[in-house]
Amino acid sequence: MIPSILPTYNRAPLAFVKGSGSWLETADGTRYLDLGAGIAVNALGHANPQLVEALTAQAAKLWHVSNLYEIPEQKRLADLLVDQTFADTVFFTNSGTEAAELVVKMARKFWYEQGDPDRVEIVTFEGAFHGRSSAAIAAAGSEKMTKGFGPLLPGFRQVKWGDHDGLRAAVTNRTAAVLIEPIQGEGGIRPVPDQCLKGLRDLCDETGALLIFDEVQCGVGRTGKLFAHEWAGVTPDIMMIAKGIGGGFPLGAVLATEKAASGMTAGTHGSTYGGNPLGCAVGARVLEIVAAPAFLAEVNRKAALLRQKLEGLVAAHPDVFDHVRGQGLMLGLKCKAAPADVVKAGYDQKLLTVPAADNVLRLLPALNITDEEIAEAVARLNRAATALRP
């Protein structure tokens, strides 16, 4: 008999009733140290007092009016994002998947309005994850994502990871855009080297193709810059964000230059809930906190501390771990053991981590995790790894 919740998740046998900072608690009072942060969503931890205040203050005034009307909270958050980024304009969604749908539409509509309606192809990369909608799984192209869901939306060309010649060959006069994660999350914490992002920007400038960054997982302070592409000193034409921007409240957005967004006029896209007063009130508070230079400096300091301790962990358990990779507080432990086994061993130590592809264990803590919590987390990882030894 099918359960009342559609059985599409392979859930851990854990249920949490409350959280505070980097800790989650079950009904019987057992506390777990959270290095997953809801898959990089709870950027400021659980039940952050400043976010609770922003949400409850807005909730007491107004929840929803729809985009039939002006929404002051939406305008405020859009202005903050424009001020802090390359973008001239912002469209708000409820999720990264919805943002993925819009970036595909925006890129194709741009070329249609430019008088080149056949320029519809979007180049993507092996190992990518852009969401689970029809367009997003077609963009990723992996059998795991697409099997059984055909016919797939046409117009996507996947390139092997790191194949520069293949990339250049894939970008043609039919290419509308190139879509890439500066750091692959689900794909196994695989950063794109700065020189490759620069080369990709040059290639798009040369061919006219739009450059789209997916910073749903790596954005909003996760790497120690407000957005990961800033490390390479390049900017996209379009960017999709979500996860951390809402700090736990469902919120996403597409940011774009005026030129890239020029085809999106009244009636070309919409959302009933997107940019609602609740989400935007929380998002604005998140951005005000995370974008502060002192906060980002602390993310980088803590990231260096965590990475140093993880390098020591790898050295102590060469039979379990191979190396550390990633940037900022978006780190991965390449495992020799099965990542799922490491995750389960972590549960026994009351520690939460997230598996990924390429035999990687993801560590995505709250950006305001303390030094003491970092030390405790690595100590628990050490005990988990010890328990996995033959």
Number of H/I helices:
12
Shape: globular
Beta-strand residue percentage: 15-25%
Which structural category do the helix and sheet elements fall into? alpha/beta
Average pLDDT value?
97
- Rg measurement, Å: 21 Å
- Which residues form runs of ≥5 with pLDDT under 50? none
Q: How is this fold's topology laid out?
A:
Elements lengths: L15 E5 L2 E4 L4 E4 L2 H4 L8 H11 L12 H13 L4 E5 L2 H18 L7 E5 L8 H7 L2 H4 L9 E4 L4 H7 L4 E6 L2 E2 L5 E2 L2 H14 L2 E5 L23 E4 L10 E5 L20 H14 L2 H24 L4 E7 L2 E6 L3 H10 L2 E2 L1 E3 L3 E4 L7 H18 L2
Parallel strand pairs: 3-15, 5-6, 5-7, 7-10, 10-11
Antiparallel strand pairs: 1-2, 2-3, 4-12, 8-9, 11-12, 13-14, 14-17, 16-17
Helix pairs in contact: 2-9, 3-9, 10-12, 11-12
